Each structure stands twice: as structure tokens, then as C-alpha cells.
């Protein structure tokens, strides 16, 4: 036989490898699991994972982010798949630019890391509509995430499409690719419980459908203790040490170890101390956990209109180990890297046995792992929240700070303690770049009910039903006739206009003049405008600009939640008493004039006449601003300081960098941050009474060397001359 291979030019060694790999792959899958851990190519592994969502950064940033994740000791990158980004209209797919999923996965592969692909397609994730395309809501008879045929058909089609795409690119591990696990659904457990029988049927269907796709790698359902075999149920939370999978033969996995939390406009900036995060991870591992994933490892930016409802901010920094701009968030990144090193040094013992647990003293706990071949690793804990302790283990005394765990990979040498930080901390700075921007302005006109491009209907219509989320903005326009003998015209006691809206923000114009602005709170997006309005005898124009700030991403049947002015709308204080405007004729105009003219683009912006110099609009509502600038030198990440502005959206060279809303100041409790204790997203908050988000990331890769067009649409009125470019440095 040797001579045949010689003739074919294949050496004996290569043949042996080929033969062995054929034999091996025919007798077992490359990725499987048991009660202890994931098994990759026959080896149980402790897997360190981190979430990086590909559309929350630019493809140019991906290689550096992945490298930093690798340097931080990660084995796996976890990402959701964002359906609404990939299928913006039915059957029209987009896998380009930030949505180039295959490219992202291939880059992770090239760096030698694995991928956990959370196909969902429900993702939650503070992403608009939880990742579902808005058109899905309008499929006849549909109900999301339940035993509903139209939904199941659409979901299966998308999941199948993604799996087929991954297979055709050979991206699953058994094909030689990096994907070692997938996820179907997301935190469906509580929803199933609420829905009862329909929820159970849907879970059974989703599990069967996913497993039937034959990816060759295990599936996961997070936060769902009903996950049917062979799907693994996993934990999400700030702490997961007490979690148990639903079957004794499944490994204990933590799909979302929250490294911080997301920011909302109107809320403070969450912070999770590195010590507590490290403590929670070490505690999980000593309690038998073998997979943990930082959600997020790099949060990034909610570019465009991708941020979800309830005022999720444009920054999705998350206080993650790599910050929004791609820089290391120290000491968190370094402290976790050191933790991962210590865990990896202990891996052989960790995957070989269940620990022996002892309690040598008050609030003290010792976990010892031993392998048959003699490896030994110990985790020593002090659960006291206030006092350090001296713990004696195998005749050696160890000093443990409060609320901390020490790791001894050889059962002797303490290489790491979760509360002792040895990496340097860094304070990221925003440094202004000199050079004033020279602005021009253009006023967005208030449309009239009789404009030819409006749509007239009786009564008030739900906003998304009209806009299909093509824009944040919907004008509700109507007219009110006032007789010349109305009493208020003489008395000057102006009638009270009341407008009830499901949210999320509202500007009220009377005869073209702004009469008030209201917006929802972080507890509820619902709002009510109430104001005395200056009406004249004759026909008066009432123009309501209703503004959506992202669609909901979570909650029972959130597809049924409403946006916009649904009424009642009333006028009180007329001769007749109260006039109800709710059911009268209203005209609708979706989007802004500036949007339809594409003012954010180079060609579009030249279609109108802009004003500059002394006439530049300042502190005027509904104003477009534009300027051009050359790319600043160097490679530091860039941002725009929007402190002088109120609310709106920003574009660079036609790309939306997201909504700005520095006018919404943070309400929260920015008290003392004592990490030793059970952490929640309400603890350790920062930036109270400041704008929730002042700086907006301007990706370098969206800039040309010169003549970059920066466009801002401002709803409230601001001073653009104070807007500045800054660079982020540490
Ligand atoms: C989880 C969810 C994630 C994300 C997170 C909060 O419950 O699975 O997608 O929304 O909460 O950031």
C-alpha cells in the first residue's frame, strides 16, 4: 500500500494522520459534553468565553478586539445573530459591513478561538425589537415566541438559513470550524411558565427543530430549566454558583456573567467592580462550573437606530473589560486575565473530579480538586463581607481579604486572590482636538394636515403601524376651528390641551410654534402632555411630533406594545366645555423632511439651502446642522462631545452613529460602592445628575482623510458651536 501512497505523493505520516482522523471522526463527534464539561476532541475543557456582538463595532475593529480577547485569556467568543440586521425586509438579506457574520466568525477562527453562536433568533440584548424584524409583527396571525404557526415558520426559515450558511462555510467544529456550540431561543423559561401549555409546546418544537438541523455541536437554552435533552440549560446573572443544570449528565454553564450593565438615557452609568466579577467567576468554578461567558466582554455601540426601547443609550459600553472604543478597561481586563491564568493552571484538576469541600472556620470554605494523575488545585474562600481572615490549609496560613477567593493551582501556592488587584488601573480621558467646527443649519418645517404627502385617517393610529419603524418620527396633524365668540379669546384663559401618548417622546406645536416637549421615564414610556395653548379665532394647526426611541426588546408579547399618540386628546376650557379631538380627522406624515431629502448624505445635503454665520440657528427645535472636517491625525479612537445639545441623531458620511440625548440627565443612586456584598445593577452607579451619555463614538474607519460630512439633527434646540471632536486615550 505504501507504494500507492508514494505514487500519489502522500507520505506515511500524512496517511496515518488522515486515517486516524477518519477513524476518530467516525466513532465520535468532535464536540460533546458530560456532567463535568464540554469535551472537545476528546478533552474536557474549562472554557472562558466573552460576548462581542459583531454589529456593535466595525469590521476594522474586529481583529484588534478579538486579539485583546485572546490576550485576556478567552477561549471562546460568544455572539447573538441579529435577524433584523440580516433581513431588513422579507427575503432581502444583508450580510455586509457590520453584519458580515461569516467574516467575523472567520476572524475569530484565525485567532485560534472558538465561537458560541446564539442564533436565537430572539436575542433580547437591548437590541431594537429584541432582534426581530419589524415586518414580522405584520405577518397575518402572528404571535411571537409561542406555539404559533406563522411565527414558527418564519423562525425556522431564518434559523435554517443561518445554519446552512455556517455549514456551507464549514464553520462548525466537526467541519474544522470554530463554532463549538449554538443557542436556540433566549431566556425562554419565564415566558414558557407564563404561557403554560402553548409555551411548553413551543419549547418542544424549538428544541426539536434546532437539534434536527444537525450542526454536529451541542445546543444551549439559557435560563430555561425545561430545556429538553440533549439541549443544555444554562444560567445568566450576576452570580451563578448555586445553579444546577436540569439533568445530572449536563455540565454547569454560565452563558451571561454580567460584567456590568447597560446605560439608559436618563439613568446613571453602571459599574461592576472587577473584584466582585472575579469573585463570582471563581465561586462558580469552584462549585463545578466549567463554562463561563462575560456578557459583555466588549459591549460596543448601538449605532444607527439599533438601541432598544426604554431609552437604551447609544453607548453599550457595559463597563466591559474592553471599553466601547476598543481600549482596555483597567483594572478589569487585567484582573480577569490573571484570574483566567490561575484557572487554566488548575484546569487538569478541575475537569477531573468533583471537589471535596470543607469549612475550616467561620465564613471560610475550601474546595479541593484532585485528578487521578496527581494534579491538585484548591480554592480558598472568605465569605465575610467586612473582615479579612486567616485560613489554614494543609498547615499553611493564607490571608484572605473580605469577600474573596484565593486560587492555589498546586494546592499550595496562592497565585491569585479575587480581591487583590495587581494590574494597573486606567482612567480613560476624552481629550478635545483643537480646531473649531464651522456649522451650517437648516430648519425642519412643521408640516400641515393639508400637505400632499400626508395620509388622512379618522382617529389616532398606533405609530409603528404607520411608520413600520422606517423613522423615529411620526407627525400627527389636525386642525381645530375656534369661533370668534369663544370666551377665552377675551379672558385670555387659554384652553388646556391634553395629549396622552404611549411614548416615547412628544413635541407639541401650535400653529407652527413649539408649545412643549414631554418624554417618558425609565419606569414607563407613557407620557401625558398638558399645557394651555394659544389658539386664535379661525383654523388652528395642531402638530404633534411623536418620537420613538427604540422598540421594546423584552416582556410578554412585547410585539403588542404600542407607541405613539393613542389619545385621548382633548381641549378643555371652550364655551362648549371639553372638546374631544381623539376621533376627528388626523393626517399623518412618517419621518422628517430632512430624512426624505437624505440630508445626512453628501448628495442629499446639497439639495437644500443651509444658513451659516450670524444667522446660524441656535437653540431652535427641529434643526439640522452640518459641518465638514478632516480626519484628526493618529489612531486614537474618536468621539463627539455633544454636551451642548439636547436630543436627536448624528451621522458621519451618511452612516448613523446613533441617537444623542445628552439632555436626559441621569437619575440614580451614585452612593458608595462597596463591592463586598451581593451585587445588582443598581449598585455602584456613576454619573448621577450628569447627561447619561455625553460622548458619541465616531469610528475611525468611517472617516476619510479629509472632507468628512458630519450631520446632526437636533429636536430640542442646542448650540452646535460647542460641539467638539475628542480623542479617547487611557
Ligand atoms: C439578559 C438577556 C441579554 C441582555 C441582558 C441584559 O437577560 O439574555 O440579552 O438583555 O439580559 O443586558
TrEMBL record:
Pfam families annotated for this entry? BetaGal_gal-bd (PF21467), GHD (PF17834), Glyco_hydro_35 (PF01301)
Gene3D superfamilies recorded for this chain?
Galactose-binding domain-like, Glycosidases
Keyword tags = Glycosidase, Hydrolase, Signal
Fetch the SUPFAM superfamilies from UniProt: (Trans)glycosidases (SSF51445), Galactose-binding domain-like (SSF49785)
According to its UniProt record, which reaction does this protein catalyse? Hydrolysis of terminal non-reducing beta-D-galactose residues in beta-D-galactosides
**What is the recorded name of this protein?**
Beta-galactosidase
Where does the Beta-galactosidase beta-sandwich domain start and stop, copy by copy? 366-421
Domain Beta-galactosidase galactose-binding, by residue range, is 622-708
Please give the InterPro entries that the UniProt record associates with this protein. BetaGal_gal-bd (IPR048913), Galactose-bd-like_sf (IPR008979), GH (IPR017853), GHD (IPR041392), Gly_Hdrlase_35_cat (IPR031330), Glyco_hydro_35_CS (IPR019801), Glycoside_Hdrlase_35 (IPR001944)
**Which EC number(s) does UniProt give?**
3.2.1.23
Q: Which residues form the signal peptide?
A: 1-29
Biological process GO annotation list? carbohydrate metabolic process
**Organism field:** Sesamum indicum
Give the similarity note.
Belongs to the glycosyl hydrolase 35 family.
PANTHER family reported in the protein's UniProt record: BETA-GALACTOSIDASE RELATED
